[in-house]
Specification:
28% helix, 9 helices, (S)-2-hydroxyglutarate dehydrogenase activity, FAD-dep_OxRdtase, D-Amino Acid Oxidase, Chain A, domain 2, single chain, 6-stranded mixed sheet, FAD/NAD-bd_sf, FAD
Length: 376
Amino acid sequence: MEITATVIGAGVVGLAVAAELSESRKGVLILERNPSFGQETSSRNSEVIHAGIYYAKGSLKARLCVEGNRMLYPLCESGRIPHRRCGKLIVATAPEEEAVLLDIQERARENGADDLKMVSAREVKDLEPNVKACAGLLSPSTGIIDSHRLMRRFAARVQRNGAQMVPHTTVSRVEKCDDGRYRVHVAYPDGEQDSFVSRWVVNCAGLESDRVAGSMGIDVDACGYRLHYWKGDYFSLDVPSGYLQRLVYPVPQANHVGLGVHATIDLGNRVKLGPDATYLPERNPDYAVNPAARQSFYEAARRYLPAITIDQLNPEMVGIRPKLQQPGDAVRDFIIAEESSKGLPGIVNLIGIESPGLTASPAIARYVANLIAAGE
């Protein structure tokens, strides 16, 4: 099979991109270093369908999140993907935070998420009897989704369209050929190496996307492509089913390193707290929940869930976020770049695809497909 487009990485974004590209072209290949799809960031998150509330006006995060939100719900309905449009409350737990809620509402409106509503303390209590707040901001378009079933849906499209997914395959280098195509060098777990030629290469390698970009000859530091790992612990909360009907978020932290320790529900009505944000300067993926974080999680959550006890918190899981910011840096947007300006026409790099990447995945796929179509 002649390879026309190679997608590196089979997380939710890579799968969505491969599914979109394979709708209109033959010879699409998706490479994944793990045994199956979605085994890293895509399966270790809050599984939230975001509304596009927090991001800077005009940013890719804002545009693609709002677009992805509007694409995901019909996709879930038609594809029978378990989901729920449960809504979200962002809560002010002190009077000085109420002005922040108004700022968030205005930013959301600028982004096209115009259905947010301010609610009073009494209305918060009516909506969520177990939540204490001075005021809240209700987002009815926020929801939850079975991320594995979404990825399985994209993978089925990839297969139906005749594209191929190759697991256990690590990309070691991408080399430009004289004819304008690219030679993709790969390695397998047994040490064997191989290579093949592809017209287009789309780097959706998640935690390793900056390394892959560097293997193309790009100076990742000069271009601002260097990734930084942030660990997010989660704790489950041992409460009765139905304790919360909606997601509950505090007012976000400065620079959006994280959105604070928030309470989410899953499709089985279990409540989880998290994630926090711990910088990993050595980029060593640490998937062990830090038991010492239990106290800080409890203190953060009881500001808006005052009846909980620390004994109700149990270690749940850890996710690693590939962020473009170090501690103290300003928030960074997604990087989705067709690299003709760097002398690499036919290369598309996606770097720093963290939240809201899950929500934005179908919109990101369409965006990438348009970049490729414009260069053909």
